[in-house]
UniProtKB/TrEMBL annotation:
Name of the featured protein: Cytosine-specific methyltransferase
SUPFAM superfamilies reported in the protein's UniProt record: S-adenosyl-L-methionine-dependent methyltransferases
Catalytic site: 88
Taxonomy of the source species: Bacteria, Candidatus Uhriibacteriota
Claim: Transport is one of the keywords in the record: no
EC number: 2.1.1.37
Entries under Pfam families matching the protein: DNA_methylase
Length: 326
C-alpha cells in the first residue's frame, strides 16, 4: 500500500493559527475527535508580533513576523495548499472601462499580495476566508473583481458562505470561504462540506466555565447595569447582546476586551448578573480545544481569537479539499 501524499500548507495572515489548526486536524472538541489530515504546515506569517507569540506557543514551526509586502515568494517554501484570511478593509472599484479592483489604503492592497504569491508559487489549491460583508462591498461590485483576480492568477474558483453553527461550532459565525484549484479535475470534484449541526446546533451552555470559577473582573458593575437599564436600548438588550444559553453565540469579534452593555458585542446574563466571556470561553466559542495555549494579555487573546478562523469549520473544508485532490 502506497503512503498517502502529505500536503504542505503555507499560511498567510496567520494570526493565532485558526486556519492552520483546522487544516492540520488531530484535535478533540466537545467530545468529537477531528482526525489528523494528511497535511503539514511548512510556513506561516503575520505582522502582529504579540499575536504571533500565541501561534508559536501552539505550533512546531516559528511564524515569520513580517509585513507580507516585504516577503519575497522565493522565501516561502514550496507548498501544495495556500491559506489566508486577507484583510478586507478599503476595497474600491475604480471607475474605468472595464472596472477594476483598487484600494483606498495599504490594508486593501494585501489581497493582491496573496494573488502575487499564488502566481509565483503555483500551489495546487488555495483557501481564502473573509467576512460575509465582502460580497456586498462597493454595492456588490468588488467581490466579482476579487474572484476575477484569483482566476487571473490561474485558478478555478468556488465560494460559499458557511455558518459555523452548522458544523459543530457553538457560534452563529457566517464567513465566506473562497477555494481555488489549479487543476480543473479537482475543482469539478470539490464540493463544500454539508452541514452537520444545522438542525441541532451546539448551545453556549456547553462551553461555559462554572460561575464559581469566574473572576469578578469579568462582571459588569452595578453602575454599568443601571446605566444600560436606564438607556433607550434597555428593552432591546436581550435581542442581540445578552446571549441565550440554549442557543449558539452571536459572532465574537476582535474587540471583546472593550465590550460594554451598550455595545453590540455578545455578553452573558446568568442569574441576573451580566458579564463578558472569558478568553477561554471565547476560544471554545471559536472551536479551539482546551489544550490550545492562550499566551499574553487578555486584550491580545480577545483580539487574536476574534479575528481567527474557526478551526472546526476549516477542518471540514480541508477534508473536502483533500478528497478532491486525491
Amino acid at each position: 500500500m502506497k503512503n498517502k501524499k502529505k500536503y504542505k500548507v503555507a499560511s498567510l495572515f496567520s494570526g493565532c493559527g485558526g486556519m492552520d489548526f483546522g487544516a492540520e486536524g488531530g484535535f478533540q472538541f466537545l467530545g468529537n475527535h477531528y482526525e489528523k489530515h494528511d497535511t503539514q504546515t511548512v510556513y506561516a506569517t503575520d505582522f502582529d508580533k504579540s499575536i504571533c507569540e500565541i501561534y508559536n506557543s501552539n505550533f512546531p514551526i516559528k511564524i515569520d513576523v513580517r509585513d507580507i509586502r516585504d516577503i519575497k515568494s522565493e522565501e516561502i517554501p514550496n507548498h501544495d495548499i495556500l491559506t489566508g484570511g486577507f484583510p478586507c478593509q478599503s476595497f474600491s472599484v475604480i471607475a474605468q472601462n472595464p472596472k477594476r479592483l483598487g484600494s483606498k489604503d495599504p490594508r486593501g492592497r494585501l489581497f493582491f499580495e496573496m494573488c502575487r504569491i499564488l502566481k509565483e508559487k503555483r500551489p495546487l489549491v488555495f483557501v481564502a476566508e473573509n467576512v460575509k460583508g465582502l460580497l456586498s462591498a462597493n454595492n456588490g461590485e468588488a467581490f466579482p473583481l476579487i474572484i476575477k483576480e484569483f482566476e487571473l492568477a490561474g485558478y478555478h474558483v468556488k465560494y460559499k458562505i458557511l455558518n459555523a453553527s452548522h458544523y459543530g461550532v457553538p457560534q452563529k459565525r457566517e464567513r465566506v470561504f473562497i477555494v481555488g484549484f489549479k487543476g480543473k479535475k479537482a475543482f469539478e470534484k470539490f464540493e463544500f462540506p454539508e452541514p452537520v449541526t444545522e438542525k441541532t446546533p451546539i448551545p453556549i451552555s456547553s462551553i461555559l466555565i462554572q460561575e464559581k470559577e469566574i473572576e469578578e473582573k469579568f462582571y459588569f458593575s452595578e453602575k454599568a447595569v443601571k446605566g444600560m437599564n436606564s438607556s433607550k436600548h434597555a428593552k432591546t438588550m436581550n435581542k442581540g447582546r445578552a446571549q441565550k444559553p440554549h442557543e449558539p453565540c452571536n459572532t465574537v469579534g476582535a474587540h471583546l476586551s472593550k465590550v460594554s452593555l451598550n455595545s453590540t458585542d455578545p455578553v452573558l446574563c446568568i442569574q441576573g448578573r451580566y458579564r463578558m466571556f472569558t478568553p477561554r470561553e471565547v476560544a471554545r466559542i471559536q472551536s479551539f480545544p482546551d489544550n490550545f495555549t492562550l499566551s499574553g494579555s487578555k486584550t491580545i487573546n480577545y483580539k487574536a481569537l476574534g479575528n481567527a478562523v474557526a478551526p472546526v469549520v476549516m477542518w471540514h473544508v480541508t477534508k473536502k479539499i483533500i478528497q478532491a485532490l486525491q
